[in-house]
């Protein structure tokens, strides 16, 4: 019977363990924390966005970091396969806006319970509080590991240690160190899906405000670098929310290429309206509230927190009566409504990123099996590989698919 050793009990590791055991291997799963699935607990704000129900080309498209590497894995274990596996194991799922798939219970802990139950049923040996210090490589082949507690031997080893984000969940970059020591190239790490810090101190006035149906545009040297439409959130330090997280990888890349350049992000608060149409809307509101002060006339157009900020940036006296507003002042107001601009000072650190970009080079991994091209018997799955994508269930699908393929391949290697 093939002996398979898995390092890391996150999404990829759990699926790899299930897969390898289903294909007849005797599996041991080593987890450095006291329990498995810690990062799964915080995905989807604790609800666990399992996957996305789009087609495979769309899955690949949304994995912006080396998505083409995942074609084979996505076909081998599809998003429907993920849903079927969980449903058959006793976890009903549902599809929400944007094709996002969640447990019906909205509880990430239920997903971990399902995996724990399956591992028990498949007689997977789960050993927690086990930090792997070193791979054992003999005659050019991976044959075991040395942990803080013991030495383990196996016919195949799968590294599924995750990235370097949320180190409190166990994802502290151990897999990169192990892979590098074995001769693998580590593509430099960058935060992907991470909030952005801005230089403007008045951002604190908007803390907690969430906006829907806005467009955010990243500008570098005055040229558009990336754009997203949807929801965003203001924080005490800057910007977050789905569209900001999606844009953050481009921001990371811009800063990596030229750390001292000015990168800005512009929010169009009313992207559905042309400047002309928005001006007509503004004039209608002004006609309606002609005897009110400006600060009391924009409540039908903007959330309350935004009104004083927009007026201030337009250089208009908030106490000025609407019928006294000049055309020039109205044009300044229009400009801010469609170009609310922030200077990005930096991304939040990798440790706070939902996903880490970079990792073990895909050029050194067989995309059909997830086996190392350098060290026979060594496999990789999940975020430790240089793959990353947008929010919406795509990164977890990549973890499940690569984990499944690595487990199946390791069981028969």
Automatic annotation (TrEMBL):
Domain of life: Bacteria
Entry keyword set: FAD, Flavoprotein
Named cofactor requirement(s): FAD
InterPro entries reported for this sequence: BaiN-like, BaiN-like_dom_sf, FAD/NAD-bd_sf, RsdA/BaiN/AoA(So)-like_dom, RsdA/BaiN/AoA(So)_Rossmann
Family matches, as Pfam families: HI0933_like, HI0933_like_1st
Domain RsdA/BaiN/AoA(So)-like insert: start-end pairs: 190-355
All copies of domain RsdA/BaiN/AoA(So)-like Rossmann fold-like, residue ranges: 3-408
PANTHER family for the chain: OS12G0638800 PROTEIN
Protein name: Uncharacterized protein
Organism: Sporomusa sphaeroides DSM 2875
